[in-house]
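USER: Study each token:
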Amino acid sequence: MSSWQSRLAPWSAPPEPDKPRLPYEPGLTLNIQRIRPPPPFDHIYLPHLTPEYRTFILQNRVVDVDRLKSTTLVDYCLSTVPLPIEPLGETAVLKVDGVMAVGDGRNAQIVTCDIDLPGTDQHRMVAKIYDPLYYSFVSEESPNIPEDVVGLADGDLAAEAAAFECLNAPLGGKVIPRYYGSWTFNLTLRNQKRAVHLILMERIDGIILRTLNPDNYSDEDKLRVVAKVMECDALMEYYGVTHTDLYPRNIICSTDDLSSSKLAVRVIDFNSSVVHSLRGLVPRYTTKSLPESPINLFWKNAPDGLREWVPDYLREDEKWRDWLKSRWSNSPSFETAVPE
């Protein structure tokens, strides 16, 4: 059967009698070990991987539909060769004390936790857990096709960790949550240990922008949020990361009072981000003293994910560009440049 015929052939997720109940709930205690995460391996990175790692990815993370349709989720998770990871020797005990976004089939699990890490006085953190057993085995794009859950979970870890490793020193605790490293732990299934990976982040008090209704705010307040997100994007670009997913679900506001002079925003969720240096590109901060102006970055249009927060009167190109120039033309924080 050809590849396209396999994709069209009827399929539904098989029963999973051996799949345990989702364990990520308050009271769970995990013994975790710090790791050096592997580089991201999406196709845009393949030419820049070491020959050994590239061979591993092509042999173990490029899976055809026929294989996925002939197995169960449990069997696939247990039979796949684990990613090569480097343990760094540090261990800790993580205790889950709350849930933020947890559910079977929702992909990464996000919980709050209590943990004692050497070198930091922070104990209340957020853990983002990439457990392929609780990713959806059914493709979002086509329910007739199984999802490569192991490749997806490993890819999420590798991409997100790479972005945090790049941005944490200059922007952690300011533009993004502070990052406390990548970790692994073991869970037992069918008397077999399987490794599950996670990252630890700062726990931020705030409001997800998605939960706010732009119709409840003035044009000035909406633009204040939009401008702050654009400045965050400019800073991330400066230090070598393109987020690619600047939507309200990935933006945390310090308050729902958008007129407050203390309003701050943080950007989260880097699993689809692009790290420039890992693609053979030179990060801007190595050659320029200032980030590129939001005027340049958003000259053609506002961030796609924030269009509902842009007032109607700025939907015309000329008025949008006038607003950009009025906001940043004389800003000392960004390189002064106005596109033609």
